[in-house]
Automatic annotation (TrEMBL):
<keyword id="KW-0285">Flavoprotein</keyword>
<keyword id="KW-0963">Cytoplasm</keyword>
<dbReference type="InterPro" id="IPR004572">
    <property type="entry name" value="Protoporphyrinogen_oxidase"/>
</dbReference>
<dbReference type="InterPro" id="IPR036188">
    <property type="entry name" value="FAD/NAD-bd_sf"/>
</dbReference>
<comment type="function">
    <text>Involved in coproporphyrin-dependent heme b biosynthesis. Catalyzes the oxidation of coproporphyrinogen III to coproporphyrin III.</text>
</comment>
<dbReference type="InterPro" id="IPR002937">
    <property type="entry name" value="Amino_oxidase"/>
</dbReference>
<dbReference type="InterPro" id="IPR050464">
    <property type="entry name" value="Zeta_carotene_desat/Oxidored"/>
</dbReference>
<protein>
    <recommendedName>
        <fullName>Coproporphyrinogen III oxidase</fullName>
        <ecNumber>1.3.3.15</ecNumber>
    </recommendedName>
</protein>
<keyword id="KW-0350">Heme biosynthesis</keyword>
<feature type="domain" description="Amine oxidase">
    <location>
        <begin position="10"/>
        <end position="442"/>
    </location>
</feature>
<comment type="similarity">
    <text>Belongs to the protoporphyrinogen/coproporphyrinogen oxidase family. Coproporphyrinogen III oxidase subfamily.</text>
</comment>
<comment type="pathway">
    <text>Porphyrin-containing compound metabolism; protoheme biosynthesis.</text>
</comment>
<keyword id="KW-0560">Oxidoreductase</keyword>
<keyword id="KW-0274">FAD</keyword>
<dbReference type="Pfam" id="PF01593">
    <property type="entry name" value="Amino_oxidase"/>
</dbReference>
Amino acid sequence: MKVAVVGGGISGLAAALRIRERAPAGTAVTVYEQAPWLGGKLRTGTVAGSTVELGAEAFLVRDTTGGDSAAMSLARRVGLGDDLVHPAVQRAGLAHGGRLVPLPGGTLVGVPSDLESVKAVAEPAADLDTDEGRPLLGPDDDVAVGALVRRRLGDEVVDRLVDPMLGGVYAGRADELSLAATMPGLAAAARTEHTLTGAVKAALAAAPRPPGTPVFATVQGGLSRLVRAVAAATDARIRLGTAVRELRRVAKGWELLAGTERVHADAVVLAVPARHAARLLHTEAVVDYASVALVTLALPGARLPALSGFLVPAEEGTLMKAATFFTTKWAHLTRPDGVAIVRGSVGRYGEEPLLHRSDTDLAAHVHRELSTLVGAALPPPVGTHVRRWGGSLPQYAPGHLDRVAEARGALPPTLALAGAGYDGVGIPACVRSGEAAADQVLKGLSP
């Protein structure tokens, strides 16, 4: 059998590895990637001699059941279990009134279970979250996160907590993102609980985390090591710089136009952005995307707060929406010469014109905003790097899960969709998506 995996990001590589692990001996797997490198948004580089992530930085350690996340499991399967490291500093900050304050704890993506815990930065409308004698959501309902939280806790909780949290992950807006797709645990609890604070408590209780358990992990030496290790374990034929421009069903499988060559496959996994998949399938895309820029600065002798980083509400009026203090957050990145590595994230959904500035202008703007928020003039950088990720973060509008189910339901059993455009933006979600797509096509190939 021949299986084609279109897309060499972590979703496609996870699919290829799963096929190698579960397909009959002799199954040929080919991965087609239009870029000259594998990994998609997992890409490690260097700035001023420091190893830094130019895309995704880390992954969740645990899944919703309390076990290893799919990314942790994948790293261990490819021999990187002993090279996983966790943040030295997990406490994050929040920009509030032009300065940094501690990000309130005990929330679920910014939605509090205890209203007192967030009053330092937002005043909840406590009189709105009353028991009306029925669950917050019906069995099949989906709403925008912002709509539900505004209705139950008021505007400040959304604008100062929930929106920056979702903006940091999705570069999106709480008022436009699906509750079921971005916060499935809270959506499930809202179908039984009568108050939002009760739903948050139920969702947190359903996914407990023992005290002291790290939330995130990364790979010593960078996430590109994970990409290389998974690619090697697939034993697949890797075709870099090869875009798949056409996909056609034929009598016995599929015909692909890969570069300038027409090739045959018995099954296909499309692990590419949803818009690209829609073009190949001649259908409508199920999701839109936001663009971001990541600006990394190497700052000699900079004194930074003891924080892993911070989030910025849109109402603060800054270009940045988040920042990470790499050399504070990760002990293995601390430099003996005192150079601090900081990365600012720029761009929310609908703000693409702001990203048209030059690299020099973006870096200077981020440097000024960092100085303002940390309350001290930061030294000029000795190294900078600007990485633009155009159309990289999917925006899950309400009803997203239904649209994805409908799109997948229309496909034959030997064709599967995988990736962040469908199943979640985090690395574990992408790994699960790729593995599920591999299982589907292998089932479709079974006699």
